[in-house]
Amino acid sequence: MGRNIRAGLVIAARILRQRIRDRSAILFAVVTPLGLALAFSILIPNDFSTFHTRFVIVDLDGGPFAARLIDGPFAGIEKAGVADVDVTGDEAAAIAELRAAKAGGVIVIPAGFSAAIASARPTEVRLLGGQFPASFQVARALVSRFASEAGATQLMIAAAVDGGAPDPTVVSAAVAAMAAPAPVTTIADEPPSRQAGRSTFYAAAMAVMFVFFATQYGALAIHSDRQSGTLARLLAAPIAPGAILFGAALASLVLGLVAMTVLWAVTTFLVGASWGAPALVALLIVCAVIAATGLSMLVATLARTPQQAGALIAMIALSMAAIGGVFLPLSQAPATIVTLSQVTPHAWFLRGIDTLADRGATLADVLPSVVVLLGMGLAAGAVGLVRARRTLVAR
Predict the structure, then answer these.
(1) Which carries the bigger pLDDT value, residue 164 or residue 353?
(2) Residue 46 DSSP symbol
(3) What single-letter DSSP state applies at residue 357?
(4) Are the C-beta atoms of 89 and 67 separated by less than 8 Å?
(5) Confidence at residue 238, expressed as pLDDT on a 0 to 100 scale
(6) What are phi and psi of 56, to 5 degrees?
């Protein structure tokens, strides 16, 4: 037993030396994912939870109800840091800014707007959208809400004047009523954020995608040894097939752990990625590496050559990455993709990282990801090792 373990350690060390010499593991498991994580962090603006835009309001009215629209809903979102709001009387200049993508929307308040509301007559507000549809939707929601309030105000004025000319006192009271707090207050108990920021997401996403390229080398080594004749010599020696498989699996685990740990450390210092509590992150990384090792071992047994095995592992790893939310957060994906993602280790690892965005997260919170990742790795690895052992014994 001890001899087989020592033989497995020697085989693992040999595989690791080979990959360090040819630099393939360093390139595919560390350099490439690190470069992509840094590029995504720099090129994609803002965290996913952040929205900011700019509105230009063209006030051609100057009346009290126009002021209420500006100082009410639009001032509110400006105070909340959601948007910058500028007011101008030059419609042409505002449209020019919209076309130059310097504004997310233009709101045009026509002349006579306040007088129309005060007289209970219909009026309009023009909304102009540009290159940012989300900004246009926000502006439309704010103006629609104001329109509902204005309609209620017109009814109040109409009832007060009973068809006569509007009394300035009634109009002032109507404006004050619109500015008063709403009769119904919404109390929102918002849960803590559980979505990783931009830098953290892409660092973790690239790490879990490319860990499959790191863990494949143990399985590929068996195919390479078969082609070179090394495997036949190992089997002829007093070495059990299990020792050969143990060495290959151990090499995969070491490469995967080193690759993900380096990415964790480097992205934390270079781009400020916040993966979460170190102990829980380390647990997630270990489980993700086990999952990748098990799946790589299983997939490699379906091929006959190292070239076939490498291509097959890459194809499956990239397919699972696309479904598992590596390129786009699952919070922004269609429901079908979210459902399919549950069969991928990528989705469960990223789910765990999102959970750790809450600083109060505990082991119980990430336990579902830990259990699923371990289950995937151990189940796939067991099948892969049985298939690989049968192949070795048969030869």
Answers:
(1) 353
(2) S
(3) T
(4) no
(5) 67
(6) -115, 120
**pLDDT bucket at 42, cuts 50 / 70 / 90:** low
Residue 134 belongs to a domain with what CATH number?
3.40.1710.10
Same domain, 254 and 390: yes
Distance separating the N- and C-terminal Cα atoms of the chain: 22
pLDDT of residue 188: 44
- Please check whether residues 244 and 302 belong to one and the same domain: yes
Residue matched to tokens 């989705």 = 347
Listed residues 123, 146, 179: the one ending a domain: 179
CB 59, CB 107: distance < 8 Å: no
Q: Are residues 166 and 243 in the same domain?
A: no
Tokens read off for 338:
């979210």
Residue 288 has pLDDT above 90, yes or no: yes
Edge-to-edge strands, sheet with 53-59: 83-88, 53-59, 105-109, 126-129
Tokens of 126: 């023009």
Q: Are residues 95 and 141 in the same domain?
A: yes
Give the per-residue pLDDT at 169. Answer: 57
Judged against a pLDDT cut of 80, whether residue 54 lies above it is answered with: yes
C-alpha 171/C-alpha 290 separation (Å) is 71
Q: DSSP secondary-structure letter at 98?
A: H
How many domains in the chain? 2
Does residue 103 belong to any structural domain of this protein?
yes
> What is the residue-averaged pLDDT of the chain?
78
Query: Does residue 65 surpass a pLDDT of 90?
Result: no
The number of residues making up the chain comes to 395
The pLDDT score that the predictor gives to residue 352 is 92
pLDDT: which is higher, 105 or 329: 105
Amino acid at 336: T
Question: What stretches of the chain show up as alpha helix (H) in DSSP?
Answer: 2-22, 24-26, 32-43, 64-69, 75-79, 91-99, 113-118, 133-161, 168-179, 198-228, 230-236, 241-270, 278-300, 306-323, 335-340, 345-355, 363-394
157 shares a domain with 301: no
The residues with which 59 forms a beta bridge, in sequence order, are 109
Pairing relation of β-strands 126-129 and 105-109? Answer: antiparallel
Structural domain containing residue 83: 53-179
Task: For residue 325, give every residue at least 6 positions away whose Cβ sits within 8 Å of its Cβ, in sequence order, or none.
Answer: 205, 333, 337, 341, 346, 347, 350
Task: Give per-residue pLDDT as tens, 377-393.
Answer: 999 888 887 887 776 65
pLDDT at 346: 92
